[in-house]
Amino acid sequence: MANILSNQNRITLACFLAYFVMSGMLAPIGIISGPMSELFDRPITDVTAQFSWLTFGNLCGAALALIVFDFLRVKTVFLYVYVLILASLLSLLFGSGLTLIGVALGVVGVCSGLGLASAALVISRIYDAERRASVLVMTDASFSVAGFSCAAIATALVAAGWHWASTYQFVALIAAIVVVLVLTSDLPATKPDDASPESGESWPMSVWLCIGALFLYTLGQYSMLWWLPNYAETQLGASVDQAGRLVTLFWLGLFVAQLCVAWLVLRLGVKRLVLISGVSTCLFSMPLWIIGDLDVL
Q: What pTM was estimated for this model as a whole?
């Protein structure tokens, strides 16, 4: 792989796969929580609660990323977090208690938060302003590709009676590829040579409003992934395949929209596009709890 791809391409692929890993952790949650509930003989709410370790860990990792690059090289961070992710995912095959599984998921969450920050930092260093935006959009597309592919894999494995953590071993393989790519690449410095000192200015209100909007967007996305498959199975009598297909379609729609967003922004503008997407998301979410026909959903 090192001989086939250029250094920049290896780094870029590692960044894309970093997003793939995080999405691959989130997409199967609603699909595997049912088998986990049966295996551990615990209510599904107790099982799902363990995945809060993953999301809270991701938040902690993102917060830690604000300071860690002042002390460590980005390559060091990138390398060790994905080694830890690989080890934690492998440990899920042997986890005998929900608490230990929660801790392993928490480690994956913290490392994924750091990994995504590392990927964003690296992309900002190796691409100029003209190409940076398009590459960042491609990372979002990678996130969505992981969503519908891992959801489909999880559905197939659960239907076949495999261990609930089998899907995460595919994610572990992706993490191992990231480790290899980082080991064989020369990553840029954490800070550019001409970095100016901190000005000490506070963030404007618009930034905080964007952060709040991203929080609500992420909350809605996670709620959909965790709630919809189990709701379809328990309330609508859907099979595992049918419930998993709903999640796959959700991620596929997300991927298609991300491919179109650059074209739509040019024609509608950011503000108008955000308003249209927010209202339409609200309207199209209503059938999820009103209509009982799986084909319509």
A: 0.76
